[in-house]
């Protein structure tokens, strides 16, 4: 009886919550969220990750567009079973049945456009009233970006994309390539807070990660005619080169190495062309860091059995450096490797001498504007950034396979809410745009600035 009365009184409160709905693009759920879980009219609450749900305009309603955020992560965040061979070091390493192209894997392929990013961009363009800006914003939906598989719940979405790419390939007679980011290491983002992940080393994280890789592999295996290119684990190995003084990075070292080794071996077996993340010019590009970095990449690669589909390294992922800067940005403080091409040209011979394949892809998605940072290390939603050079294989360097957009511009780098669990001080700096929602969720005003400041212009 008492319980029933309590329920009744609770129910009488509900209309008050409904009236105070979260605004479009506002937060509407996530771990520890005590605010409104309903959305303003015309928008729907969509789960982005365990930490964040966001009110997205109903025009981006994901049910028809294969939106990865529709997966319910709470059911799959902690898999109860580990995969066969997931933990065994004695199990033999599977080998690919095909031989990788010796030349640039991007050449001759049509790059698949993520329907999820396209739906985000279309919804964003719909919010813009200025017709010129609206048209420019809408055009971004036709520029290929990578899809980040940042929680295990999204892995089934890869199958949907591959099936779609396979169908498009058959219909058009063209060959298709799907671009993915493998990003779910346990104790992820060990030197920062904004992108902390779902797996913890202390709680079976490495086995959970192996299961995550197995889920990706299971999808890829089904579509042998679609080429997959992957960026492997942004920031992870670079953190092992320079941030072992951070306790969380030191504690993660073995798990990162084992996880990346497993990813290389298993993705190699299904013919995924891989680029390991290598930070950027202002990180591993400092002369003192080049040799330690090359040795780490090379040692891991060799201990994984020199997987043939490891093609090289990805640089500047989600960062703002130019591939080739006319003059050094003021924040580069005398580093001779002041842009990505100087970094690549300096690193390539060291890699080659260490026996690592020295090919590169470079993210230029948000590199349109230079001279916008107070410090080179500032990475969070930097104010006045603009979309950069469009993806192309016409890179001006035989070392660089492709200019790519790895970071989907408009998705947030990290929250500026100082009370949030994943608040990182970089997202509160003077050159960080505020107020910013959680990492990975849509940041409308930031997207509009990227469009306005695009160089070359859209
Ligand atoms: C900031 O985060 C805290 C903790 O999750 C939350 O209670 C608060 O409502 C958030 N503030 C804003 C402006 O989103």
UniProtKB/TrEMBL annotation:
EC number: 3.2.1.-
Record's keyword terms, sorted: Carbohydrate metabolism, Cellulose degradation, Disulfide bond, Glycosidase, Hydrolase, Polysaccharide degradation, Signal
GO CC term, one of those recorded: extracellular region
Binding, substrate: 148, 150, 280, 283, 319, 379, 407, 411
Record's keyword annotation contains Signal: yes
One BP term from GO: cellulose catabolic process
Active-site residues per Swiss-Prot or TrEMBL entry: 189, 235, 413
Region of interest: Disordered: 58-100
Designated name of the protein: Glucanase
Domain CBM1: 20-56
Signal peptide stretch: 1-20
Family in the record: Belongs to the glycosyl hydrolase family 6.
Compositional bias per record (Low complexity), positions renumbered to this chain: 58-83, 90-100
GO molecular function: cellulose binding; hydrolase activity, hydrolyzing O-glycosyl compounds
């Amino acid at each position: 009886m008492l319980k029933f009365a309590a329920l009744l009184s609770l129910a009488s409160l509900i209309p008050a919550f409904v009236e105070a709905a979260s605004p479009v693009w506002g937060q509407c759920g996530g771990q520890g969220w005590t605010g409104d879980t309903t959305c303003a009219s015309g928008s729907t609450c969509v789960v982005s990750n365990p930490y964040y749900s966001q009110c997205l305009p109903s025009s981006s309603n994901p049910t028809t567009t294969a939106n990865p955020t529709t997966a319910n992560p709470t059911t799959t965040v902690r898999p109860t079973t580990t995969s066969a061979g997931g933990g065994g070091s004695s199990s033999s390493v599977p080998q690919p049945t095909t031989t990788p192209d010796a030349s640039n894997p991007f050449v001759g392929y049509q790059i698949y456009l993520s329907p999820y990013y396209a739906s985000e961009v279309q919804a964003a363009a719909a919010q813009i009233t200025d017709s010129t800006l609206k048209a420019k914003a809408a055009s971004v939906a036709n520029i290929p970006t990578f899809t980040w598989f940042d929680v295990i719940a999204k892995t089934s979405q890869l199958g949907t994309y591959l099936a779609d790419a396979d169908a498009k390939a058959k219909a058009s007679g063209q060959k298709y390539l799907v671009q993915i980011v493998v990003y779910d290491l346990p104790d992820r983002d060990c030197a920062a807070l904004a992108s902390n992940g779902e797996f913890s080393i202390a709680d079976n994280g490495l086995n959970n990660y192996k299961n995550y890789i197995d889920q990706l592999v299971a999808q890829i295996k089904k579509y042998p005619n679609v080429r997959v290119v992957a960026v492997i684990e942004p920031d992870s190995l670079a953190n092992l080169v320079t941030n072992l003084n951070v306790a969380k990075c030191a504690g993660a070292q073995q798990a990162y190495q084992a996880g990346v080794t497993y990813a290389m071996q298993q993705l190699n077996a299904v013919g995924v062309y891989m680029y390991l993340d290598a930070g950027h010019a202002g990180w591993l590009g400092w002369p003192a860091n080049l040799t330690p970095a090359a040795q780490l990449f090379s040692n891991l690669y060799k201990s994984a059995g020199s997987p043939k589909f490891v093609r090289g390294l990805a640089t500047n992922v989600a960062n703002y450096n130019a591939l080739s800067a006319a003059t050094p940005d003021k924040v580069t403080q005398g580093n001779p490797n002041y842009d990505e091409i100087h970094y690549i040209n300096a690193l390539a011979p060291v890699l080659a001498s260490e026996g690592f394949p020295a090919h590169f892809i470079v993210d230029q998605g948000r590199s349109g504007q230079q001279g916008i940072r107070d410090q080179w290390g500032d990475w969070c939603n930097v104010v006045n950034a603009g979309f950069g050079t469009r993806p192309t294989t016409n890179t001006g360097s035989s070392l660089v396979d492709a200019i790519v957009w790895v970071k989907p511009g408009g998705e947030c780098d990290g929250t500026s809410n100082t009370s949030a669990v994943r608040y990182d001080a970089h997202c509160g700096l003077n050159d960080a745009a505020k107020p910013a929602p959680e990492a990975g969720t849509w940041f409308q005003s930031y997207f509009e600035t990227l469009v306005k400041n695009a160089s070359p212009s859209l």
